[in-house]
Amino acid sequence: MPKIVFVQPDGSSVEVAARTGESLMEAAIDNDIPGIIAECGGACSCATCHVYVDAGWADRLPPPDPMEDGMLDCVLDRHPTSRLSCQIRVDDSLEGLKVTVPAEQL
Ligand code: FES
Predict the structure, then answer these.
(1) How close is the Cα of 58 to the center of ligand 1, in Å?
(2) How far apart are the C-alpha atoms of 72 and 47, rounded to whole Å?
(3) Cβ(98)–Cβ(5) under 8 Å?
(4) Which of 27, 58, 72, 106 lies deepest, with the highest CB count within 10 Å?
(5) Distances (CA, A) of 6 to 43, 66, 74, 80
């Protein structure tokens, strides 16, 4: 159960134990992380699960596929490390991953 750190816009953070095989979004929802709405339930069609991946981690994740990349164009404040958390699958290699929830989802 890799530990994932969710940071809020005010700098506070919560560490959760995610289950291998679930998405980062599911780990956030299971642990009541504020700011992750996930309106579409993980179908990559709402962009309300947007997170900013910590700079040190961004290159260690597989890049967004064209569908995720297209949805990321819909978020309010896209950064180079923006990702949709429903498209990131948890495995042991993500131990210690840190992501920040945006101040607003779209
Ligand atoms: Fe809707 Fe991720 S939950 S795009």
Answers:
(1) 19
(2) 7
(3) yes
(4) 27
(5) 21, 25, 22, 18
Cβ(81)–Cβ(52) under 8 Å? yes
The kind and range of the H/E element at 56 are helix 55-58
Of 39, 28, 56, 49, the residue nearest 102 (C-alpha): 49
Q: Which CATH number does the domain housing residue 66 bear?
A: 3.10.20.30
Domains: count for the chain:
1
For residue 16, the enclosing domain spans 3-105
The dihedral over CA atoms of 86, 47, 63, 51, expressed in degrees to the nearest 10, equals -80
- Chain segment 8-52, per-residue pLDDT in tens: 999 999 999 999 999 999 999 999 999 999 999 999 999 999 999
Mutate to test the pocket of ligand 1, among 24, 26, 48, 67 (most ligand atoms within 8 A of CB): 48
By most ligand atoms within 8 Å of CB, the mutation choice from 29, 40, 72, 99 for ligand 1 is 40
